[in-house]
Amino acid sequence: MVMGSMRKAKRSYDPAAMRARILDVASAAFQSRGYHSTSTHDIMREAGITGGALHHHFPTKKSLGLAVINERVAAAVEEAWINPVRRARTATDGILRAFENIAESLDKQGKVLGCPLNNLAVELSTADPEFQAAVTQVFQAWTSTIAEKLKADKSQFAGRIKPDELATLVVASYSGAIALAKAQQSSEPLRICARQLGKLLSGSADRG
Amino acid sequence: MVMGSMRKAKRSYDPAAMRARILDVASAAFQSRGYHSTSTHDIMREAGITGGALHHHFPTKKSLGLAVINERVAAAVEEAWINPVRRARTATDGILRAFENIAESLDKQGKVLGCPLNNLAVELSTADPEFQAAVTQVFQAWTSTIAEKLKADKSQFAGRIKPDELATLVVASYSGAIALAKAQQSSEPLRICARQLGKLLSGSADRG
DNA sequence: TATCAAACAGGACAACCGGTCTGTTTTTTG
DNA sequence: CAAAAAACAGACCGGTTGTCCTGTTTGATA
Question: Which residue, B28, B143, B119, B20, is CA-closest to A36?
């Protein structure tokens, strides 16, 4: 070990970047290993930071978990579902494309880690009221966006279907499908559910 | 503290009952708190046993977890889904009744703890291959039973629908619905999904 | 430039975790 | 009925966990 040439890396003193790096590492770790199986020391090591830095930005592990849900997980749901559905031509189109896009990205990756929201929802909902509230809020935004798009679709005349209920089924089907996908490490459940869901969505348009 | 009148409870030396009690406590604890959040000491204390007894029947925590999945969780799925669906008049009838029965039992209980299979599937599938295999097997038995019932239904003429795919959607919808129910601590998502799913199931019968 | 708070570094700690070990009691076996 | 095996009791251990504490360095402020 040559010590003479080793200089300590200077501190960057960029609190925003530090906080972002912690959230990056934490959200990735929580998704792949889960909240309880990830220790604060794991996060410190993977992020290359010390306990002081972690404690400064997130005094407790719980506060870090809440920040991951409110900032990273919410943003992920927005990118994968909320924005695509809003921009889509029709609700059905946006929903089925979201399924397909996620299924494709799963095939590209080696492992199926599951939906970050669903993972934390199942693990932490009953563990803590604050976690539950944070998770519920993201689910709510997700569901209501789909419901709004369904209402906006001109092909569905008012009263024939219940957009809020149909949106709930879509979210539930996706969450369950990705849970199945995680269990059998395959994207097939996602594609299967998309196909079957498509029948209901197209059927609702002309039958109600 | 009066010690003179205290007698040590005699050992029962009933290994089957001891093993059953451990599985009772463990499966209940795993469902309400999750696998990783439940310590072996928790189980020992709640079951009123010592480390020696626990280690004798289940040398490792993992072996206990596998036994819970293979014996208790599998049995729970059989009782709540597999047997009711087999005995039902039609597949649609059995499926919707299973949703409704579970929703009712959730209302009776104070808390929504989620589906024991789904909980452990999400928490442990990526953590260990043996857990994944055990979970997948239960999912498989569940799905194939529904698919078989769908095939047996005379109202669905052959080729019009894909029973295996429809069964996957049913299981996924239920798993996701109960995840939503757990998140918002309400049985509503379950009832909503049952209603929406009913449209697809009845529609499949006469339209395909 | 002196002052002060924010932003880290890094060690320490009590509690806890899963697993092991030795010993004792009961049942089963030969 | 002796011997062996099974079924426990209960203490113990090394490693890990989340959190806290004391410094030190930097940027903001006045």
Answer: B119
